[in-house]
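Quick start: what a row looks like.
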Amino acid sequence: MTDGDLVRAALEGDDEAFGEIVRRYEPAVAATVMGMLGDCPEAEDVGQEVFVRLYRSLASFRGEASLRTYLTRIAINLSLNELKRRKRRRLLFSMKPVEEHRNLPDPAASDRIGEEDLVTAAIQKLDDKSRAVVVLRLIDGHSTGETAGILGVPVGTVLSRLARAQQKLRKILLPLIGDGR
């Protein structure tokens, strides 16, 4: 069944059709949310909330964008909301400045820490807007135009955020993996 068929069936009350939408898109939603939030308990909650929001808004889904793009937009928005909550909690409970490299794995501490783990930790150090662009473009594989559409910003903004994010990632990662590992 196509996505359109599944949406129509789900709107008619077919729970199996909605279940198929969840099965089809759960990996993509999880990748987006994990890319934005990291591996944390809130990521699972946000991932579930994406599908709750989809279910509630299914009747207003016009099909102007693909279902994957629609779900990705919901995932990004909910992830950004969670990141704002984190910042508020951090400000409420701690007046310490956030260290740029805190919680980055020490590559010298273990041979088991891979470059992928270091990159994932470094992405978490980006500001929210830059992280969203990196996750959508470099992890989820959306085009620049799709990324702009999902985030509701001009293509030029996506390109500039991506360039700045890549510079910051280089600055964070080169000292950690610059030895040729």
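That is the whole record. The CA atoms of residues 130 and 161 lie 5 Å apart. The chain has two domains: 1-96, 99-181.
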